[in-house]
Write a structure and sequence with these properties.
It contains no helices and 11 strands. With 118 residues, it is mostly beta strands.
Length: 118
């Protein structure tokens, strides 16, 4: 069955760095575009970053642009989010998402908690 498992979350001080991982299984990973989303308590889900099937094209929300980098390894079937210069506003549960190009069909992971606090 399809699985997306996020890991790497935790507590980090403002200005610190963290790398999130998402391990994919049960589907043809390289046929899917991938996204990162996050949701903070009391707020709407926010799109963070996207990366197309080959990893050549990436996009970021204005709130994380210049601080976060997403990448993928299609051999290992892994998605990554490297976060730096972290701010308290980045505190949220982070989710990876797989979506088939041209469709609304996709999969979601369970999320990993990132807390930025001193």
């Amino acid at each position: 069955q399809v699985q997306l498992v996020e890991s790497g979350g935790g507590l980090v001080q403002p200005g610190g760095s963290l790398r999130l991982s998402c391990a994919a299984s049960g589907f043809v990973f390289n046929n899917f575009n991938m996204n990162w989303y996050r949701r903070a308590p009391g707020k709407e889900r926010e799109w963070v970053a996207s990366i197309e099937t080959t990893g050549r094209r990436k996009n970021y929300s204005d709130s994380v642009k210049g601080r976060f980098i997403t990448s993928r390894d299609n051999i290992k079937k892994m998605l990554y989010l490297e976060m730096s210069s972290l701010k308290p506003e980045d505190t949220a549960v982070y989710y990876c998402n797989a979506i088939y190009p041209g469709t609304s069909s996709g999969y979601w992971g369970q999320g990993t908690q990132v807390t930025v606090s001193s």
